[in-house]
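Re: duplicated header lines in exported C-alpha cells

Our pipeline writes sequence and C-alpha cells for each protein into one text file. With two proteins the header for the second block appears twice in some exports. Here is an export where it did not happen, for reference. First protein block:
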Amino acid sequence: MSADALDKELAGLAASARAALLREIEASGAFAADPRWAEAFAAVPRHLFVPYYYVGGFGGYERRWGGSPDPRTREQWVRGAYEDVPLATRLRDGVLLSSSSQPSLMALMLAELRIEDGDRVLEIGAGTGYNAALLSYRLGDGNVTTVDLDPEITESARRHLDDAGYRPTVVTGDGARGVPERAPFDRIIATCTLASVPRVWLAQCTPGALILAPLATGLIALTVRDAGHAEGHFLRTPAYFVPLRGSDRPEPEPVALTGVPHRARESDLFRFLLALTRGALDPQEASVLWEREGMPGRERYGITVGAEHAWAWLDEPEGPYAWPLPGSSGSSGTSGPGLVEA
C-alpha cells in the first residue's frame, strides 16, 4: 500500500504514530552516538516497508495487512508498524526468513556506524528496504548498496523503496561475498547474524572503514586497516537477528550446560561467551573464566580478523584469553584457544 492509498484518517494516525516512535527511540538513547539520525527516522515512513507482517499468537502467526477491507484491521496494522518491535515479514513453512528489525536497535546501529557525509555504505541483508531508505535519506541513493540472497526479498525491497521515493542500488546475491562491483565501501552494516566475518569484505573496504555486524548475540564494530586486517570491540547491547544465508555451514547444535552453575546458566552475558567461543571452550571452562573475570559484559570482548586467522578475545587482542572463530584456520598464536589461566 502506497502513501497515496492511505485514507486521511489512517494517514494522520501513521504520522502521529511515527512521531511517538521517534520520541521513544530518542528516550532510549539510541541516537547518542549520532543524533542526526533522528531526522531520517522522522522523515521515512516505516509502514510503506511493511504492507503486511505477521504477529505471533496461539497456534501460529496472524497476518496483518494494510489492504484489509476491515478498517479495524487496517488501524491495527498502522499502529503495529510503528511499535518499537521487530516485525516478521516473510515466512516459509513456519520458519522466519526476513523481518523488519526493532527500530531502536536499527537507530543504535546506524548511529554507531559513525557515518560521514559522502560515505559509501554496503548493507548486508536488504530485508524490507527500510534500513536502506534511512541510509539513502542521509547519504543519497548513489552512496547506498543493499544485497540479499533471495530474489523475492530484493524485489519487494525495491518496490517498497520506490513507493517511498528512494532508489539505492539493490543487488540479488550472496552477501557473504559482498558486492565487489560497487566497492570500495567506507562502511558495511549487516542486518543478519554472522558466524564469522567474511575476509572478502575487508578487501572491498577503504582503509579506516568500519564494519558493524551481529555476531554471537552481540554487535561487533571492526575498523579495517587494510585488506588483510580488521579489529574492534563489541558494543554493550545484545542483538538477535536472522542468520546470514548462503553459507554451507550447518546450524550449531545446542550446548549442554550440565555442571554449569545456575547463575551462569541464567545469564545472557554467559550465553554470549558460549556463543563467541563455541567449539573452543566447553561450558565448564567458560563458566570458570566468566566467574573469575567478574562476569564481563559484551564490550570487554573483541575480534581480530587477520590475513590467515580470525580470533575473539577478552580485553586485549594479545592478552591471555583468545579463541579461534569459526572458519579460522588457527588460533591467534597468543596463549592458545580456550586457555583458562590458573
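Second protein block, exported in the same file:
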Amino acid sequence: MDTKLEVVVIPVADVDRAKAFYKALGWREDADVPTGDDFRVVQMTPPGSPCSVIFGTGVSEAAPGSARGLHLAVSDVEAARAELLGRGAEVSEVFHDAGGVFHRAGTGNRVPGPDAERRSYASFASFSDPDGNGWILQEITERLPGR
C-alpha cells in the first residue's frame, strides 16, 4: 500500500490572521471554504511541497498554537531563513544540536550556526506563526537511502 502524508491540521485562533501570515510567506492558497459561522476550512501549501496545511473554524479541537515540530525541508537553511525574514517572519538564527543527531524539543542543546560538517538533516532554524504553532526549517542536501 502506498501511503502519503497529504495534510496537517494546525490549530489557530484567528483564521484570517493565519491566512494572511502564510500568504505573506509565499504559500499557495488552495481553498477557503466557509459553510457557516461554525465551520471554515482553509488549505495552504508551502512552495514546492506535496503536503498542505489546513486550519480554520471547527477543524481542530487542539488549543490554538499548540502544534510543534512542523518541519519544512529546505536545500539551504540560510537562504530559506533569509527569504522568510524578507517576508516578515521572525526566524531564529541557524543552529544545530549539540548531540549532532536531531534537534531536541524546545531550545535546549542548540549550538549557534549550521552543522560544522554541513551534514544533511543536521542544520535548522525555527519560527512560529502568529498563534505560536512551531515550525522548523531543516536543511536536507542529500536524502537518506530509500528516501
